[in-house]
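Minutes, methods subgroup
Present: GH (chair), OT, SY

1. OT presented the first of two proteins processed in the latest run. Sequence and structure tokens recorded below as shown on screen.
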Amino acid sequence: MLGTKLCRSAGLAVGGAALLAGCSSAAAPSASPPQTTPAAQVSPAGSSPPVCPNPDGGTCVGPLTAGQTYRTATFQPAITYTVPAAGWSNLEDLSGNFLLVPPGNNLAGVNAGTSDYIGVYTAITPATLDQLPSCAFGPPPGLAGTPAAMATWFERQRPLAATLPQPVTVGGLHGLVLDLKLRPQAKMQTCIDDLTGKRLHMYPLITGLFHSELEHTLVPRLTLRLYLLTSGHHVLGIEVDDIPNAPGRLQTLSAEVNRLQFAAGS
């Protein structure tokens, strides 16, 4: 962040030094009818289910109660989760995008690149700018859709400082996890945004496939922990953004990732 998200279909936020700022996923709410709100999310008898405070957040819950069990209503594969303290919020529950924001952070900060967050995406791939001079993202040609192939691709990008990928299991899904940063003096790429006509400088990182709508970049000083998990025929991605000076820590965010449980059969 500090410009890690680029969203097209729901508007584009631009922040700082011509870097693309975050926006809460470009995806519109799923056209499919939302599932019945699970009992864990239901308010006291006779009251209405929670209304998502993010207009583009689908069936999100909003502020979460510490220790209460929640289950996504739209995201696939379904996620069961809890949070350990007050102040956490669920601000996206779409078919391919799920967003958790920790205490002291908010959606405006996610959009502006000043807030930490956890994003879960049904299907992702590394991204390149594939239609210069426009800022269209696409997958690297010929890249296999496996956690190992994707992790190796990140390791081989010279502008990236990548940790050695480690085996990981999250909520029943298996794969690899690695941390990514831009090296000092890393060369950014330049393109012309086809919506605004502005010249932008960025380092493309990941993009979504199928129902996951995202175009995320990596910028200096951001630590990004990326989980690459096998889910059916796709690689499910969990992105943990640790923003400098934001009220959150990578360890705390990673502990929350470890609480996620994915529906069996994913």
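2. SY then presented the second protein from the same run.
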Amino acid sequence: MENSFRELKVGFELPALKKKVRQEDINLYAKASRDFNPIHIDEEFARQTPAGGTIAHGMLVLAYVSQMMTDVFGENWLESGELNVRFKTPARPGDNLTVSGKVKKCIEENTCFTVTCDVLCANEKGETVISGETVVRVKKDENRC
């Protein structure tokens, strides 16, 4: 998608990213982040909590938002991306998540455009897992809004 972002303008819908939450991925994230909170990795413990079962790390789910932005904006996102989000509902093993976004604002500056997007991550029940806003600076020679 990165090469076709010349078409970006206010209202443009970013290509959605779909992810299935798997306990194996949660366990791998726990190892990588060293966050072994039992609410994430101990199914027996988690069943006895108000959550009623294990939940994915918020930062794991947020990484899906960043993956969608990287798919669209490539190195521009990696170099200048900013996130401002709220976590609404936990993601659980078995959830099918859809990450989506829409260009909200595009401001021309000296050497780049600043693109602001509304982003949303929702499960298959339509529940919002994450909502918020991203900002990315795109070099002028790569894009026109």
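Chair's summary of item 2: The mean pLDDT is 92.
Next meeting: continue with the remaining queue.
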